[in-house]
Specification:
Distance between the termini: 43 Å
Number of domains: 3
Number of helices: 12
Oligomer: single chain
Shape: elongated
């Protein structure tokens, strides 16, 4: 294992002890304990062949005490130490009787809020997740799920899994937290942008150890959009749009079958979707279905007749009830997230003159999209939409 506890119960890393990188009494201590079994451990290795790590001085069957991975335990101890250094009393593995006797990874009271921090690295069954989440919420706990990542990148491109989706928080803005084991820092993930079914681009911003944990977990300030992710969105968007225009759809999904008849009526196939039906939507909505499919569905069913009103609430409900659309499990209510994603898309259509926003949740159709266009025109439309989108949203 790569982490242990010093005489004061603080987390230390084997590489730092070996190289005395940090200095100070925490790393000068001669006695370190295993966080799992409490027995004494010492530093060994540290060569080019063997990475520095802690080993037990006596024979033991300890494997971390409770089956947790080293990364999970490292994240838990890091967050506990950070909370305590900021003056909070953090308790590890606290049993919460009012929440079905669940054992919280970390429990901490922060400015009147009963906060449970759950570090999740391994697969979690959807039913188990919903059960745990509901028990915490009914007992009045604020639950923050924290993922564990090993990549040290500023911009991620990832097909989001169940594990990723449960970490999302909707308010006061769309974000998620994770522990970056590569640099041993907590990070906030924002600007999740869907470019194809289930695949998202997002940025991460490292959180300083000196930042107050409450200000971090309950911040209302949205991290600025980085230039790197702006450029990556444009590159990926162009690449994906060209690919979807150029190859025949061999295996049609249920969601694609929903919109296919609309294109067939115009003697077209799914490669001929309008440019405004493949817009990157910034803000995770939990939708696994491909962008050009669910956006085409909205255009087909709601953006057809000039002067017609679109109400966001019934549109969101109809979208959620579409059996052909697939979604990821979410800690937030699914309908709230879907509503946010659809609203962002309707706002884009309004900027391009297809809709007009009448009230916060009501839009009016101004100009329906023309579907039957030659492929050459659609490629030109793609370039035009990307260029205008960049100007409108400063990407």
């Amino acid at each position: 294992m790569y982490t242990a506890l010093n005489d004061k119960g603080k987390i230390v890393h084997a590489a730092d002890v070996k190289n005395n990188q940090k200095g100070g009494p925490a790393y000068d201590s001669e006695h370190f304990k295993c966080p799992g079994c409490g027995n004494e451990v010492y530093v060994r290795g540290g060569s080019i062949y063997v990475k520095a790590h802690f080993a037990h001085r006596i024979f033991t069957s300890c494997n971390g005490g409770d089956g947790e991975s080293l990364k999970h335990k490292e994240a838990k101890l890091f967050i506990k130490t950070w909370l305590e250094q900021s003056g909070y009393n953090a308790e590890i593995e606290k049993v919460l009787p009012k929440a079905g006797k669940q054992r919280a990874d970390i429990y901490v009271s922060m400015q009147g809020k009963k906060v449970v921090l759950e570090i999740q690295r391994s697969f979690l069954d959807e039913q188990q997740f919903y059960k745990r989440q509901l028990l915490y919420e009914k007992a009045g706990y604020t639950v923050i799920w924290i993922g564990v990542r090993e990549e040290n990148q500023e911009v991620y491109r990832k097909r989001l899994s169940v594990l990723d989706s449960i970490c999302f928080r909707l308010f006061p803005f769309m974000h998620a937290f994770s522990y970056n084991s590569a640099c041993r820092k907590l990070q906030i993930e924002t600007a999740h942008t869907q470019l194809q079914g289930g695949v998202f681009l997002f940025q991460r911003t490292l959180i300083s150890d000196t930042q107050n944990p409450y200000d971090c977990f309950f911040s209302e300030e949205v991290p600025a959009l980085q230039e790197k992710i702006s450029m990556r969105i444009e590159q990926e968007w162009k690449k994906k749009a060209a690919a979807k225009r150029g190859y025949p759809r061999k295996n049609i999904t249920q969601a694609e079958n929903e919109v296919l008849p609309y294109y067939l009526n115009h003697r077209l196939n799914l490669n001929y979707f309008p440019a405004l039906c493949h817009i990157p939507v910034c803000g995770f909505s939990g939708i696994r279905t491909s962008v050009e499919v669910w956006q085409s569905w909205i255009i087909i069913h709601y953006v057809q007749k000039p002067g017609e009103k679109i109400s966001l609430t019934p549109l969101t409900k109809a979208f959620e009830n579409q059996r052909s659309f697939t979604f990821l499990p979410l800690a937030e209510h699914r309908r709230n997230l879907i509503r946010r994603g659809i609203l962002n898309y309707l706002l884009v259509l309004a900027e391009f003159g297809a809709l007009r926003r009448v009230y916060p949740g009501i839009f009016e159709v101004i100009k329906p999209l023309t579907v039957k266009k030659p492929l050459e025109q659609l490629f030109a439309d793609d370039e035009y939409v990307r260029g205008k989108w960049k100007l409108l949203f400063r990407v």
